[in-house]
Amino acid sequence: MVGRIREQLDREGLADNTVIVFASDHGIMNGEFGLGGKALNYESCLRVPLIIMDPRVAPSECGRRSNALVESVDIAPTLLDCAGVELPRGMQGHSLRGIIEGTEDAVRSSSFAENLWSTQFGNPRIESVRTDDGWKYIRYFKNDRSLFEEIAKKKQFRATPKLIASYHDWLTASINGEEPVFEELYHLATDPSESVNLATRPTCTDKLHQLRAECQRLVTFAKGEVEQAPATVVIDQTKGRKAQ
């Protein structure tokens, strides 16, 4: 598929002016820990391929591999930067152009991830942080799926006010003081499979506290300064529709 796209770009005379990004939205659990699916914050779910080809990059820099911590929110700033467009004020993410061109090695020292998806199937609310020195912290929050079970029973698969209010609470719960019900701490540098939880080890107490604070900082930065989380803004879904 990628090859055919590049061939078509050549035919259209656009190959020298097109940045190509190949990525995925999530990984997958294939039996690790006896689990399946895509809604957890283990590395097998969070890590995705990211290949960026900019035809303007010097041949000496082509094919470079990077171990930099990046996030999906970096893709939009990267493309805008490559196009010479000034990034909008308040836009999340970092441009990866420096990494692509070989002028930078990293854009952040820690990365944040969360899961709020498909809790009606029992997936927990999760937040996690990974640092560039090989540490990973995951925290889980109490999951009440009774509302989703009620919606499923009534077949009300739409954004009801009650559901929006519940989702808003989930989005902002941790920055408003909700305590996690379970924590995990892994040293990925020596335990890449995340098999030894160090959260209760006395020797790792300082690291646990450090990553708790970093996770709180990142989640607050991501969504703690808005009056209403963007995903819960009510949109009139009837606009533009013809009367039935």
UniProtKB/TrEMBL annotation:
Q: Which UniProt keywords apply?
A: Hydrolase, Metal-binding
Give the Gene Ontology MF terms in alphabetical order.
metal ion binding; sulfuric ester hydrolase activity
Check the record and name the SUPFAM superfamilies matching this protein: Alkaline phosphatase-like
Q: Which Pfam families match?
A: Sulfatase
Q: Which Gene3D superfamilies match?
A: Alkaline Phosphatase, subunit A
**Tagged with keyword Glycoprotein:** no
Taking every annotated instance into account, which residue ranges of this chain make up the domain Sulfatase N-terminal?
1-85
Q: What is this protein called?
A: Mucin-desulfating sulfatase (N-acetylglucosamine-6-sulfatase)
Q: Which organism is it from?
A: Rhodopirellula maiorica SM1
